[in-house]
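Weekly puzzle thread! Below is a chain. First person to post its structure in token form gets bragging rights.
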Amino acid sequence: MSKFLSGFLLGALAFLTANLLAAHFMSDCGLPAVFGVDSCADDIIRAGWPFQFYEEGGIAFHSYFDGLKLAIDIAAGLILASGTGWWLKNKRPDKKI
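Winning reply:
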């Protein structure tokens, strides 16, 4: 079980990192804007990878949140993490000659 858990956590960490990088590069002022600690005026904050589920800001302020896309993103992360855990658990050790 420990190999599966290690793989699951590795997959979950990879998915979280991909989401944070996407939020950083898609938002106008980067990751500080997503967490509300930026000094940019009229920036647009975007979050979600592979599906963008949140957008807020701009000169003509707007706010968009899609719960279905968030649920799909979470499901994709759990599938990736489970797949990584399964692969690591079932990986055969290298044969030594």
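Puzzle host: Confirmed. Bonus trivia for everyone else. The helical segments are 2-26, 31-34, 67-90.
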